[in-house]
Design goal:
This protein is 34% helix and 20% strand. It is built from 15 helices and 16 strands. It has helices at 23-31, 75-92, 108-119, 137-140, 162-173, 181-186, 196-200, 222-232, 267-270, 277-290, 307-319, 335-348, 368-382, 388-401, 439-452; strands at residues 12-16, 49-55, 58-64, 95-101, 124-129, 151-153, 210-216, 234-237, 250-254, 257-262, 294-300, 322-328, 356-359, 414-421, 426-431, 461-466. The structure holds guanosine-5'-diphosphate (2 copies).
Length: 479
Amino acid sequence: MRRDPLPLSTPLVAIVGRPNVGKSTLFNRLCGGHDAIVEDQPGVTRDRRYGASDFDGVDFRVVDTGGLDYQAASASTLARDVLRQAMRAVEEAAVILFVVDGRDGLMPQDREVAERLRKIGKPVLYVANKIDGPRQEPAAAELYELGIDPVFAISAAHGRGMADLLDAVVAAVRGEAPDAGDAEAEEGQNDGTPDSDDKEEKDDTGPRVIRIALVGRPNAGKSSLINRLVGEERMIVDSVPGTTRDPVDTLIEHRGQQYLLIDTAGIRRRAKVHEPMEKIAVAMAEKAVNRADVAILVIDAAEGIGEQDARIAGLVQESGRALIIAFNKRDLIDADVERKLREDKERQLQFVPWALLTTCSAQTGRGVAKLLEDAQRCYASYNRRVSTGELNRFFDGIVERHPPPLFHGHPIRLYYITQAQVRPPSFMISVNYPQGMHFSYERYLQNQIRETFAFVGTPIRIMAREHKKRIGPKRRPET
Ligand code: GDP
Ligand code: GDP
């Protein structure tokens, strides 16, 4: 995080809450332990701790209101002081982080403060701290009683849940409403439909953290790859194991781009003995993939492609996420074996012909940093929007060269094409008989779009809609 002072005009994020809930721990987590230099800045109250931070390309200042005004001994004076302290910080702040101890649950003072905060008309993010692992998660649920959604369950001490909180802080600083989408995915409630709508708006607003899930069979080398990446790149939020040994996400930076590595390595520790390891691996992979933008399917090159790999690739395909297939342990195989692996991939994973193929070795480090660059490429494709004008110029040529086959003796007319969505890119085709669009013709169109617009590593979806002669657009929509 940053050390240089930021101008006072930089948005301020205030951390408020009772003593001992972990405000200063959170402050340190956000600001990397560096207080901003405040002595020379006029108008800054000296009894608060100010710091500077940045995430996803957005600078913000942080104020820790902890340790103030606590002459109080009795519960009632304490409540008043917390409130006063919170309100003072709130006057200056653009965004408020209201922190409670997620293990204690709600205290009466918390309710009172939350009530007041709700009325002030500034964005408030509700944070349940000290949720060090999944076992503590139910404790945070009490916050929902306040009618608050989402609640950010974090462990300031260990970094758990920080990436989602930071996403929300940055969104609030930018003036976007906090979105519950990621929180939902976190709960594993994602139904597999790509969450394109709520995030689409962010696409054009500069760099974003790229979320990567490393998935694959046990022993493929996922943890080794993560360790290698963490060892070589700048780590922003570390995954230092705490008292519990549950997996945490890791945030790293490579060449100015931030990546969140979603860890599935902890599954071994959580596995129930009677469940087959491989089955758990698939279930965990699914959960991780639903939280990611890009999935990296790690395959042990010496072992070859197995049935489980095909299952995991299949679930990535269904989720609509970008996919990289990484043959790890390259150091154990020679060029002939590699050639054979690539052939096997064509056959055994033929349903994801678009996946980006790469080789690496967590042991030697070869190809490991490139995984991040590949992920960035795939991510760019995953988010790419092609203008309607460009699409239709391409479409005219295609339809002329290779018209769709007849449907019950009727010619199929393709009127126009638009891109309805990103993440993944999804195209809507207006056609006289949508039911007559043959699967193989759809596949052909997908391939043509992929080649023409250089989409890499992302699935592409095509939807056919019936062309309505009367109410449909007479002319193509403007680009
Ligand atoms: P503040 O008074 O709100 O600023 O709270 P502190 O940051 O000083 O933290 C109070 C206590 O809670 C300290 O002993 C911290 O080590 C502990 N603490 C803070 N965050 C966490 C956390 O995420 N998990 C656990 N287990 N303890 C935490
Ligand atoms: P995970 O279960 O997918 O997280 O796999 P691990 O990272 O625990 O790796 C399983 C085993 O493979 C460990 O003994 C690693 O040392 C080894 N391993 C991982 N990557 C490589 C590699 O690139 N080359 C070689 N030779 N061994 C590797």
